[in-house]
Specification:
It is a single chain. The chain is built from no helices and 15 strands. Strand 1 and strand 2 form a beta hairpin. It has a domain of 110 residues: Jelly Rolls, CATH 2.60.120. It is elongated. With 174 residues, it is an all-beta fold.
């Protein structure tokens, strides 16, 4: 059997009538049910703390082939690996590296007894193998025991020409 609510007789507009958690308001022609908001529940259990983030372990880069120093190193075909040592006794002018791929990261370490010179946009290497050393730099000298870091980027604008790919210098230690 259904329960019957007994509303106040002759209500005035805006008058409210509450039964349990429901509040009814007289609109002038009918009673409107305004469901009351319930009591806020208790907060759930806090989850476990995540890791601190960042690098917490060591990183090991794969060593690639050694690059023999020579007067000119053009379109040097890099093997697999991330870091490469220039070895020998000659001062070199390096104009570019082959085997670039979008996002490839390389570190070149000068392991000779001479400075090594990196040359920007040098035509001795194919365009896609060339080096970008930064605004105002035709060359960068890397001292004995120091390094240069490059990333291979695609979709660059070089000399007003769009969609070019180059090795972009990101850091040096000298």
């Amino acid at each position: 059997m259904a329960s019957i609510l007994s509303f106040p007789p002759s209500p005035t507009v805006g008058q409210q009538f509450t039964v349990g958690v429901r509040t009814w308001t007289w609109s002038g022609s009918h009673w409107a049910n305004n469901t009351a908001t319930g009591v806020q529940g208790i907060q759930g259990i806090q989850g476990t703390q995540g890791s601190a983030g960042g690098l917490t372990e060591s990183v090991t880069f794969t060593e690639g082939m050694s690059i023999a120093s020579a007067a000119n190193i053009d379109d040097c075909a890099l093997s697999a690996g991330v870091f490469f040592k220039i070895t020998g006794t000659a001062e070199s002018t390096i104009t570019g590296f082959a085997n670039g791929a979008a996002g490839r990261f390389i570190i070149i370490v000068n392991n000779t007894d001479q400075n090594q010179i990196f040359s920007q946009e040098n035509s001795a290497s194919l365009e896609s193998n060339r080096l970008v050393l930064g605004y105002g730099h035709d060359s960068r000298i890397i001292s004995v025991g120091h390094s240069a870091t490059f990333v291979y980027m695609t979709g660059l604008i070089v000399g007003g020409v769009e969609s070019q790919s180059r090795w972009v210098l990101t850091a040096t230690t000298s």
